[in-house]
């Protein structure tokens, strides 16, 4: 299994023009194994267990590299901190206004099916991103 992961990571880097390093591979594997929309600090805490010498700055730099190359997407910063989007399927987000938890919700669950790629004023749509703001079940019970 480890060899398959290493081979697929090397292929992914080659497709996106990124040099392969041990730190990047560990970072990618950790991020790929995380659920939700982790912050760089959450990723750093997990990566540091596997690569003790890694710095938070290196984690940030490589997350930005992964985002710029299209491997992952960055969510907007208005959720409290930078969050990384690893789900490439069309979806939107439910954001808890209290604890800032972010949960994916499908377009069909919201009753949305955006099909227009041009909006008024000639605005060209790259993707739709709807944030549903409210209280998660955990915060409602608190």
What does it look like?
This protein is of the alpha+beta class. It folds into 2 domains: 78 residues, Orthogonal Bundle (Arc Repressor Mutant, subunit A), CATH 1.10.10; 53 residues, Dna Ligase, domain 1 (2-Layer Sandwich), CATH 3.30.1490. The chain is built from 6 helices and 7 strands, in the order H-H-H-H-E-E-E-E-H-E-E-E-H. The strands form 3 sheets. Strands 4-3-7 form a 3-stranded mixed beta sheet. The protein has a two-stranded antiparallel ribbon with strand order 1-2. The mean pLDDT is 83.
CATH topology of the largest domain: Arc Repressor Mutant, subunit A
CATH architecture of the largest domain: Orthogonal Bundle
Integer tally of domains: 2
Compressed to H and E, one letter per element, the order equals: HHHHEEEEHEEEH
- Percent in helix: 40-55%
Fourth-level CATH superfamily of the largest domain: Winged helix-like DNA-binding domain superfamily/Winged helix DNA-binding domain
Tell me how many strands there are.
Answer: 7
Strand order of the largest sheet: 4-3-7
Largest sheet: 3 strands, mixed
Comma- or semicolon-separated keywords:
globular, alpha+beta, Arc Repressor Mutant, subunit A, 2 domains, two-stranded antiparallel sheet, Dna Ligase, domain 1, 3-stranded mixed beta sheet, 7 strands
Show the helix and strand layout:
Blueprint: H1 2-16, H2 22-33, H3 40-50, H4 56-69, E1 73-74, E2 84-85, E3 91-96, E4 102-106, H5 107-110, E5 118-119, E6 123-124, E7 131-134, H6 137-141
Parallel strand pairs: 3-7
Antiparallel strand pairs: 1-2, 3-4, 5-6
